[in-house]
Amino acid sequence: MLPDLEMADIAALIAPRPLVLEAGERDHIFPIEATRRSFAQLAPVWEAMGAPAPELVVTDAGHAFRAERSLEALVQRLG
Asked: Taking the model in full, what pTM does it have?
């Protein structure tokens, strides 16, 4: 499947559930501009399902996961 799917295709499978993506400004594995382009493809998928668009959190880090906003969103969701 990988030759036929892009990251945005895989992320869109999560719709319409909430999604917070985190990317690093200095990530050499997933360059930030490619991440932004892929992320831009996601909002229309959620909107078509009547759901709030996903969030992209960009940190000043490289390839690292801080999770502050993700954990905050999870706590909000679990109430």
From this structure: 0.86
